[in-house]
C-alpha cells in the first residue's frame, strides 16, 4: 500500500497493525516524517517504510501497489488531475484508491473563506469535479461521498473538549493560543454552514 501525505504515520502503522499491509508512506515534510520514524522505531514494525518525496514529481514503476491511500493531503496539489493519473499508473490492475480531501461546496464563497484557502495554499474541487477527475484518469466504479457533516461533528467535538479543559490547556499554553484555536474552529464551522468548505471521499478501482 502507498500512503500519500503520510504525515506522522498513524494511518500507515494502523494499516500494517490491523490488516498486515506492507506500507510505503511518502510525504514532502521532513519534520512530519521525523516524528513518524521515531514512532515507528518505538513500535518496531518492519512492514512500514517512509520516504521524503512529492507525489507530483516522484515516479514509481507501473503496477507497483495494490492500494493507494491519502488522507487530507492531495488538496495541496494544484494539479490533482496529474496526481490521480499517476496513482492510476502505479496501481496494479484491480487495485483500489481511497482518498479524502478538503473540497469546495456550492454556496457563494465568502471573502473570508477565499482568503483562508489562499493562505493555506489549498486547491479545492467540488465533489463532482473530483469524481470527474478520477473517472478521466481511467478509474471505474468511482464512488464520491460527501463527509462534511462528519467533519462538522468532529470540529464541534474538538471545540467542546478544549472549552471543557480550558484551565488545563492554559497551564501549558497562553490565552492567545487558546483563542486562536477557538477562532479557527469557529471559522471552519461557519465555512461549512455556508457550504463553502466540504470534506469529500473518493473510492475507485483500476480496471483489470
From TrEMBL:
Gene3D superfamilies for this protein: Vaccinia Virus protein VP39 (3.40.50.150)
Domain Methyltransferase: 2-95
Gene Ontology MF terms: phosphoethanolamine N-methyltransferase activity
GO biological process terms held by the UniProt record: methylation
Catalytic activity: N-methylethanolamine phosphate + S-adenosyl-L-methionine = N,N-dimethylethanolamine phosphate + S-adenosyl-L-homocysteine + H(+); N,N-dimethylethanolamine phosphate + S-adenosyl-L-methionine = phosphocholine + S-adenosyl-L-homocysteine + H(+); phosphoethanolamine + S-adenosyl-L-methionine = N-methylethanolamine phosphate + S-adenosyl-L-homocysteine + H(+)
Domain of life (superkingdom): Eukaryota
One family name in Pfam for this protein: Methyltransf_25
Pathway membership, UniProt: Lipid metabolism; Phospholipid metabolism; phosphatidylcholine biosynthesis
PANTHER family: PHOSPHOETHANOLAMINE METHYLTRANSFERASE, PHOSPHOETHANOLAMINE METHYLTRANSFERASE ISOFORM X1
Protein name: phosphoethanolamine N-methyltransferase
Originating species: Ascaris suum
Amino acid at each position: 500500500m502507498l500512503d500519500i501525505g503520510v504525515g506522522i504515520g498513524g494511518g500507515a502503522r494502523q494499516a500494517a497493525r490491523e490488516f498486515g499491509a506492507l506500507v510505503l508512506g511518502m510525504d514532502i515534510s521532513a519534520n512530519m516524517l521525523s516524528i513518524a520514524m521515531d514512532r515507528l522505531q518505538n513500535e518496531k514494525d518492519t512492514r512500514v517504510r517512509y520516504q521524503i518525496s512529492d507525489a507530483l514529481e516522484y515516479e514509481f514503476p507501473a503496477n507497483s501497489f495494490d492500494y493507494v491511500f491519502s488522507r487530507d493531503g492531495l488538496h495541496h496539489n494544484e494539479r490533482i488531475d496529474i496526481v490521480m493519473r499517476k496513482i492510476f499508473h502505479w496501481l496494479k490492475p484491480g487495485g483500489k484508491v481511497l482518498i479524502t480531501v478538503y473540497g469546495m461546496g456550492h454556496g457563494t464563497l465568502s471573502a473570508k473563506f477565499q482568503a483562508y484557502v489562499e493562505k493555506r495554499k489549498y486547491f479545492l474541487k467540488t465533489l463532482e469535479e473530483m469524481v470527474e477527475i478520477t473517472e478521466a484518469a481511467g478509474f471505474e466504479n468511482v464512488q464520491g461521498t460527501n463527509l462534511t457533516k462528519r467533519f462538522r461533528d468532529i470540529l464541534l467535538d474538538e471545540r467542546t473538549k478544549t472549552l471543557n479543559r480550558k484551565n488545563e490547556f492554559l497551564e501549558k499554553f497562553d490565552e492567545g493560543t487558546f483563542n486562536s484555536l477557538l477562532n479557527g474552529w469557529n471559522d471552519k464551522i461557519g465555512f461549512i454552514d455556508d457550504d463553502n468548505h466540504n470534506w469529500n471521499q473518493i473510492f475507485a478501482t483500476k480496471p483489470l
